[in-house]
Amino acid sequence: MSSSGRFIPVTIGAWALLLLIIAAPAPSLAQQVNPTASSVNERQLLQEMDRIQGRVSIPDQRSSVLMQPAGREWREFRNVVLRWIGGVAILGMLAVLVIFYLTRGMVRLESGRSGRTIVRFSLFERFVHWMTATCFVVLAISGLNITFGRPLLLPLIGHEAFSEWSQWAKYAHNYLSFPFTIGVVLIFLMWIAGNVPNKADVDWIKRRGGIVGHDHPPAYRFNAGQKAIYWIVVIGGGLVAATGYVLMFPFYLSGIEGMQFAQIVHSIVAMLFIAAMLAHIYIGTIGMEGAFEAMGSGTVDVNWAKEHHGLWLEEQNARAEANARPRPAATAAE
What we know:
Blueprint: H1 3-23, H2 29-32, H3 42-47, E1 52-53, E2 65-67, H4 70-104, E3 117-119, H5 123-157, H6 159-175, H7 177-191, H8 199-206, H9 224-248, H10 256-287, H11 291-296, E4 299-301, H12 302-308, H13 310-324
Antiparallel strand pairs: 1-2, 3-4
Helix pairs in contact: 4-10, 5-6, 5-7, 7-9, 9-10, 12-13
Cofactor: heme
EC number: 1.17.1.9
Main location: membrane
């Protein structure tokens, strides 16, 4: 047989072997999870592994993660669930405040103004308050842009303007977080002594003091409602600051799963924080007569202090009387 005659069977055999190799089923992840028509699906495959990861030659091995199935649940939360939470909390609070104002109106001073004032907050206290409040407003607006900007703002101003605005909002959100955090720490240290709950707070709540009821139960420097705002600022501000820094410096303190959890906590607490601060802003401006003056000029009318913080006014008057008493002159030693 010639060499060409021997070559033909060998060639046919090689092609047949190649076809068998191609047609042979290769082991796969689906075979490891019972690959039947009713059981093999994308969700089941993803549940069998916490991530899809390859190999990389660069030092940062975290870049080898190609897909993290839990990220789909996080994306669903961010794009759907969070918008519902924020919408219900913020719009719901605004609706309640509008209805309350239309039915109750501004809480007026029943005894009128006395014309005499008393110092309520020092210059340093007001500076810390306004620094923290200003940072909070910018952080709230720029943070809401992350959640609601694309569906609400983008169609109104267009892609180019929205991109420019979002870039500056990101810078503001990142850099103003530092003075905001400092402000929260200072607020905690400045006013912790006056915001420890006591028996007067229980009586204040029972008698529906402040803006809800028409009674004026006695209160010290901070009543139960103000103490609630204080702890919301301290705890809520602390949580959004801590989780925000986890997100601002990715992978330094946590992996991708921890960052997803931090973003969930950060966003939920921030939405509830904004809703609570809307109520605080309402009471401090159009909700109660004379309240804004406490943080505006630092002084309040004596009648306002008597109606809303009677026990504190008594303490201040007693202190003033003690300081006004003439002290006995020191006698010379014989």
